[in-house]
RBR-type E3 ubiquitin transferase (Citrus clementina), 285 residues
Amino acid sequence: KRKKNLEKEEEGNGSSFTCEICIEPMAASKKFKNKSRCTHPFCQECIAKYIQVKVQDDNTAKIECTGLECKHDLDPFSCKPIIPSSVFSKWCDVLCEDYVLGFERSYCPNTNCMALVVNECERNGTLKKAQCPSCKQWFCFQCKLKWHAGYRCEESGNLRDPNDIMFGQLVETMNWTRCPGCGHCVERKNGCSVVMCRCKTQFCYKCGGKYPLGCLCFRSFACNCRIAFSILFMAAGFIFVLAFLIKKFERGLKAFDQIGTFGAIFIFGATFGHSSLFMQEICQI
């Protein structure tokens, strides 16, 4: 407490302070100011040396304040005037690299470009078609090759015939989806996004993945009409059973007759049976 009081007195005087790193008295003009994040009594020279070690030796992006139990980071723009321009430039590069590592990234397949492309839009790994911001060439973000319109990644290496390329472009224009089982193109006019090919393979028309485990958009209820149907069936079953019970009690009957009992059991069994199938389907998702 005495130490904190002394620091407050020194700061109040405005003439000098004691740096907690080098333990030397310093003029108030040499005190480092970390924007509005924290106000520890550190001199600019000590902070500058600390930043140089962190950046040049450790390649640290987010440099923490040296204050005891302080969880704030040093503000790069507050540090810019007290460190060499080369150190600040490298620090900016390290910060950019640290930012990029948090996103899915790829390099342009164009050998004359090879620019770094960052996916800042989709975080679930579903991005496929991407355009290089440098050379404007389209490529596949999944297989890192030139864009293969209408073909899957595993088929893109065999695209040599111009007719195959033209057919792939037609598939993309018509918005057809290839069956993951047999590879044939399927066109959906309307209805549920979960379709069945003539080879009996069920797949999602939106992402082209096998249903349900291979579907990339399975978390969206819009791609599965059967889930909505299951919910409606369960709701209708419960309403019917509830109305049946109310009607019996209104008549003053103490017990169900044989037909009514078996009917209620059948309805309950069908409803809960369908709900169990519904839960199994949800658990698979």
Strands lie at 16-18, 25-27, 104-107, 116-119, 129-131, 138-140, 177-178, 185-186, 194-196, 202-204. The longest strand covers residues 104-107. Residues 1-12, 219-224, 270-285 have pLDDT under 50 and may be disordered. Residues 2-84 form a domain with the Herpes Virus-1 fold (CATH 3.30.40.10).
